[in-house]
Amino acid sequence: MRRLAKTLSGAAVATGLAYGLAYVYFHAGLHTETCRGIAAPWPTSALDPPQAHPMAITWYHELLYVADAESGAVKQYRNDGTLVAAWSGFRRPVAVAPTDRAVYVADFLSDQIVTLDSDGRVLGRWGRHGTAPGEFDAPAGIAVDRPGNIYVSDFYNHRIQKFDAAGRFVAEWGGRGRTRGHFRYPAGIAIDAHGNVLVADAFNNRVQVFSSEGTYLRQWGGIGFGIGGGWPGWFRLAKDIALDTTGNVYVADAFNDRVQKFTPTGKLLSVWQPNDPAPRYPSGVAVDPGGTAYVAEFYANRVRQFRCE
Fold first, then answer.
1. How far apart are alpha carbons 49 and 125 in whole angstroms?
2. What is the DSSP string of 32-53?
3. What is the pTM assigned to this prediction?
4. Residue 28 region, left (φ>0) first, then alpha (ψ -120 to 50), else beta?
């Protein structure tokens, strides 16, 4: 009996290793691009005040929007780090979605979505603490599709909620779990050119992709069951997602101190992980139309730029 148990245990380990190696081969593959920094980090003084902690960063119409979680402000910058405007009054802003109509801010501690005009004036708020449709337990990511629908990752409720342009509840999906279509603390969120919703499923260490109605389409990252790691193509806390103009996906891999770039179907293209200075908890990532990526480093209080090609 012991021999049988030992044999079965060995077979399970071998199967797990084989599965892991197969996953790395098919989903990670070989790097086909090289990433390099293209500018010095923004000086700490640019992230005024210096003790600020940039949580998220978004590119829109020649400006970068930074959610400064520590100081409770959303800030606009040019790509050289020049401060353009700062909008205060948030409890802990952690994600920003600018559009032509309005700027939407996920305010983590107030359990609200705040709507601003282009000058930073508050147009409205919706949400409150709870688990019912339209309520939040810490909104952690936000994105807007072309028709104007708003998608919010509801962190502690382990779900995605969808709203119309007026903030009216439309649908939800998810729930706590490790299987496909479920989440463990969903964070960053992005919409691709087809209207699909990409979610950084933070503590499941993976990216999940859904249709605009919430139908599961695909995923990539670790082998599942919450297992993460430092192998190429895997994550140790997938924090944020950004897309370039061709649909490639950039993921802020926070506890691995790196950003990874994938094709739209999850094939690994490159890894950005410089040594001097090393990233410190990349919490947000954005990409401009020219292909320059911007990374908000929470613990280093800085923003850096790089390109992969």
1. 26
2. ---EEE-SPPPPGGGSTTTT--
3. 0.90
4. alpha
